[in-house]
Amino acid sequence: MTLPTSAAPLTLAWRQALLLLVALIGWTGFWYWETIVAMVGIWERSETYAHAFVVPPITLWLIWRQRAQILAEQPRTSLLLAIPIAFTTFLWLLGELTAVNALTQFALIATFVLTIMALLGINVSKHIAFPLAFLFFSVPIGDFMLPKLMEWTAAFTILALRGSGIPVYQEGLQFVIPSGNWSVIEACSGIRYIIASVTVGTLFAYLNYVSLRRRLFFIAVAIIVPVIANWLRAYMIVMLGHLSGNKLAAGVDHLIYGWVFFGIVIMIMFMIGARWSEDPVEPNLAFTPATTTATKTTSAWLAALTVALLAAAGPLGFIAINKADQASEPSLAKLTTPAEWQQSNLLSSWKPVYVNPSAELHTAYRHDDKLVGLYIAYYRNQDYQHKLVTSTNTLASSTDHTWSVISQSRTEINQAGLPANLRTAQLNGKDTTPETRLLVWQWYWINGKLTTSDIAAKLYTAISRLRGQGDDSATIILYTPLEQVGNPQDSLKAFAAVNAENIVKMLQQTRDKR
């Protein structure tokens, strides 16, 4: 594309709009500085999101390419965009109250984008719609896809191995073949490949195609291809290890092989996509100078002032709520159990992975031949390093070589003191002979509300904090050996029938001592 060498003159309206825009971006950056630092911190420590460092420069370059079309228009403030800015500010507040990085960072970028649109107007914004949308690739979102991507990768690899005539024994994300043991961990999920492919693929589609259909089709290809490529990569790495007696692709080098393979696949995808590239349509520029009136000047300053007040409202609201919510560190109240359920030694070496709880309880109970373990992690004054619902809080880490999650599901339970359905899982421990297997029930208590949904738990926490009731929350986990006499499900039901409401009372008593 040949860009015009000259653009329309920078009018007084443009100088005023740009001055206000720079001031507003600086003002917003001041109030949301901690969110910006947290986002950049994720870019620095995570290879998955390292690409985000180049997103803002690319956005500026894309806007610069459109300078002739932009300056051919005149900035006209849009005060109506204050409404979605108020909404994104509130989203940021909800994210900050519940310590959800993805939500606060998404809301911040949305606020920046809407601020630009409010100051420059809809007509100007149309010319930079893609650059503004591309800026959202700087938000490190995608970890929520990890569990499903890992499951897909494991399922395809095992299917392909069996199709190749290799016997496979599977336990969750771990599997055994005659030449050794393999497991699918976060690095095998392909999330890095997918995010990199979608980011670069979206930019490629914008620069090489004109029609919306071709752009959307190529973006869809950029999503699908890395998923399938990652499946093939995992299968080929296992095959390389198997056929070489684990001399190849058995260590860190298999990640290098994976990136080389991915690079080749993406290069081929772009080469094929380039064959259908379209010539850009040269814009028909017709500059119409605008007169700057006192009314327009007043409108611009009114819009800037409104956006500035809305931007500050979120952080100021959080400071007020957070100050009112602070309470002393909790000490769990005593759990009262019926006499027939006697406290016992722990059933195994397993302990759920919950980081920095404010208080926790881990014990076990026995009634005749029934054995039940109980784990409670209680959280108060939550922040980004100290929160209940997070991907790092799990039943067993994927890097744990002793304990692994074999399966997970949900089951409906109609019982007092329990939510309508429970998360269930089966765990396997390799530290004993024979190996230990556990049946696990899990749910959340959020300031009196019971749920098994991560999203509902975050929502209940936000509502509780907005009401000034604090953020006291806990996870409750019951577990029992699968090998015990009788039905292990019956053991958990029997324990919950007489103790679930007592657990709720104990948590409520702890909450009342804030």
Sum this structure up briefly.
The protein is an alpha+beta fold and 514 residues long. The chain is built from 15 helices and eleven strands. The protein has helices spanning 12-31, 33-45, 55-65, 67-71, 82-97, 101-120, 122-127, 129-134, 146-163, 191-208, 212-243, 253-274, 294-325, 454-466, 488-512, and strands at 169-171, 174-177, 180-183, 342-344, 359-367, 370-379, 403-412, 421-429, 436-446, 449-451, 473-481.
Mean of all residue-level pLDDT scores: 87
Gross morphology: flat
Q: How far do the termini sit from each other?
A: 65 Å
Portion of residues in beta strands equals: 5-15%
What value does the Rg take, in angstroms? 28 Å
**Helical content (DSSP H or I, runs of 4+):** 40-55%
Order of helices and strands: HHHHHHHHHEEEHHHHEEEEEEEHEH
The total count of strands amounts to 11
Structural account:
This protein is α+β, with helices and mostly antiparallel strands and 514 residues long. The chain has three domains: 12-141 and 293-324, no CATH class; 144-190 and 210-274, no CATH class; 342-512. It has helices at 12-31, 33-45, 55-65, 67-71, 82-97, 101-120, 122-127, 129-134, 146-163, 191-208, 212-243, 253-274, 294-325, 454-466, 488-512; strands at 169-171, 174-177, 180-183, 342-344, 359-367, 370-379, 403-412, 421-429, 436-446, 449-451, 473-481. Strands 4, 5, 6, 7, 8, 9, 10 and 11 form an eight-stranded antiparallel sheet that branches. The chain has a three-stranded antiparallel sheet with strand order 1-2-3, with no helix packed on it. Strand 7 and strand 8 (421-429) form a beta hairpin. It is flat. The model is unreliable at 1-6 (pLDDT under 50).
